[in-house]
Each structure stands twice: as C-alpha cells, then as structure tokens.
Amino acid sequence: MNVEPIGIVRSPYTDKFGIPRQPGLVTAAEARLELLPPFARPEAFKGIEGFSHVWILFVFHADCPEAGWRPTVRPPRLGGRASVGVFASRAPYRPNPIGISAVEHLGLIEDERGLALRLRGIDLLDGTPVIDIKPYVPYADALPRASSGFAVAPHNRQLTVHFSEQALEDLARADPGGDRQLRDLVAQVLAQDPRPGYMDRYPERRDFGTRLHEFNVRWRLEDGETTVIAIERPAPEP
Q1: Is 0.90 surpassed by the pTM of this model?
Q2: What does DSSP say about strands 207-212 and 84-85: parallel, antiparallel, or unpaired?
Q3: Where are the bilayer-spanning segments (predicted)?
Q4: Helical packing angle, 165-174 and 182-191, nearest 10°
C-alpha cells in the first residue's frame, strides 16, 4: 500500500505547543492547503464549492513516525494521568500515524504559489502532509445521538485573556492592518489554555511561551486569567 501526500498545510501553528486539541475551537486559525503535483488540478475539486466543511486526512509527521506506536496513551482530556488504548483515542502515536479533522472550507485559490484550498478552524501543525480530502456531509457525518466515552464536551469556561501595553505595541508592528487576525488568533489560542494537562502539578509556574506564525508569544497565567506579555520575532541566527 503506497500513500502519497496530495498537499502540505501552511498554518499559523509553527510549534506543537499551542495547537488546539480539536478543530474548530480557534476560528481565527486560517490555513492554506497547498496542493502538490499531479494533484494540483482545479477539475479535481469541481463541486467542492457546495460544501462548507471538509474532512482532512493527514499524517502526524512531527516526532511520531520515529517514536513508533504505543498500545496505551494518556489523553489530555483525562489530564495526562489515566491510560486508555490507543484505538480509543485520537493520540498521534498510532501504528499508522494518520489523523482526521473536520474544518471549514473557504474556497479554492490559485496564485503565484500554486493551487491551494483555504481552510479555517484548523488544528494542524505547519508542514503537515495531507493524504486525502473528503466533503463533510451533515446528514451522514453528524450523529447527535452518538456517545463519546471519556471525551465529553468541554465546559464553556475559557481563560480571560488580556494584552499588556507592550503586547499591544508588538501587535501594531506585527499585524498593522489586522489582515492576519493575529490578535484574535492569540486570544483564542490562549483562552483554550494550551498547557498540558499535567501542568496543574506545578502551580508555581506562571510564565509560558507559545509560537504562532513566526512570533514568540510570551504570556503569564495568574488567578485564572492570562496576560500576554509580549509578541516577539525571534532573533536571527548568527
């Protein structure tokens, strides 16, 4: 069985830390799925404009192939403390490291970089190889009576996110016209509390960093509220 990538995702998540745990949680996260030849053909997408969402089948390419599969994993939903079978989870450490995400589809574009599909609500690391695209069909794919085991719907509680004066100045320089929705992206990512589930074992830790696009986002968590301290471009390597 040969599986060939049909495209590569270009997303704001340039580091695994900070990626939401499920698609659709961060609506400001827009991405571009750049199609590879010989699949970069507009006729291959004829009719897709009628579908608001698509399934993206992808490969967990960062670390997982080298790490191999694990029969049991510790899902973030259980705080990283309890084990479940890998096939009862969406963990990346699988015999075949394949994932699936249902994301909003914003249309096909063709520009100087080639043919691409615009996506929103993405939860994929930048550089993720995609192996297939399928339309999301609500009458068949949405099963409201299905049970979800330990993966119950999260509470609506989100962290309150504030921006320091320094962070606001950094935003004005980084995204002056707001075209990249950088402020919304930072706020929505941090509101989900991207810290690993085991971090409550270290209540003394307050300062964290998250990488989005090419920026290092520094933030502090105190009394259930998050303050963005700075949004910095990394120093160029010598």
Answers
A1: no
A2: unpaired
A3: none
A4: 130
Dihedral in degrees, nearest 10, Cα atoms 77, 82, 84, 86: 70
- Dump pLDDT digits (tens) for 92-101: 888 888 999 9
CA atoms within 13 A on the CB side of 217: 31
Residues 203/180, Cβ–Cβ less than 8 Å:
no
Q: Are 86 and 72 in contact (CB under 8 A)?
A: yes
Longest CA–CA separation in the chain, Å: 57
Tokens of 100: 């699936």
Would you call the peptide bond into 38 cis, given omega within 30 degrees of 0 as the criterion?
yes
DSSP 139: H
Domains parsed from the chain with CATH numbers:
7-141 (2.40.30.70), 160-232 (3.30.2310.20)
Token output for 21: 């745990």
Q: Tens digits of per-residue pLDDT, 77-131?
A: 666 678 888 888 888 888 888 999 999 999 999 999 999 999 999 999 999 999 9
Residue 163 CA to residue 40 CA, distance in Å, equals: 41
Distance separating alpha carbons of residues 137 and 191, to the nearest angstrom: 30
Q: Give the integer Cα–Cα distance in Å for 189 and 184.
A: 8
CA–CA gap between residue 119 and residue 205 (Å, rounded): 35
